[in-house]
Amino acid sequence: MGSRRIQSQGISPVISSVLLILVALAAGLVIYAYVTGWMGGRLTGETGPQAILVIEEAYYNGSHFILWVRNDGGVPVNITRAYITDPNGTVVFVDLSDDGYEVKPGNVTDVHIDASEAGIDVQSGYTYEIKLVGSDGSTVSTPVRARRAG
User: Fold this and answer.
1) Band of the pLDDT at 53, cuts 50, 70, 90?
2) Based on the structure, what is the number of domains in the chain?
């Protein structure tokens, strides 16, 4: 009996080279997408708000909401807007951009919001939610209870 040799048919060298190139390109694209997304976010410097606003004290003095705001962040920020929510859920926008409420890192600034100029009829004994917004998008909010007369 003669020996019979079986020759296996594999993938041709041309096809295997093309497959290796495609796998290498796919891996390169995945790595490129990861690195550009990661590095792009690091290089643009757009990390969002960098001021950290804290309200030290807030009260209503009969005509104004007074808020003492501290900046625990690393950059100065201007308080540009306020949103006041009354007990009924109505939200009133107050533009503070022209009032010059700059809060430097580590400092405290008092913000005054005139209730009558904002069109708010403050009722004694009720709580109003006040949200301050900085020029960099940082926010802080606090409830303020209007004092009862007498």
Assistant:
1) very high
2) 2
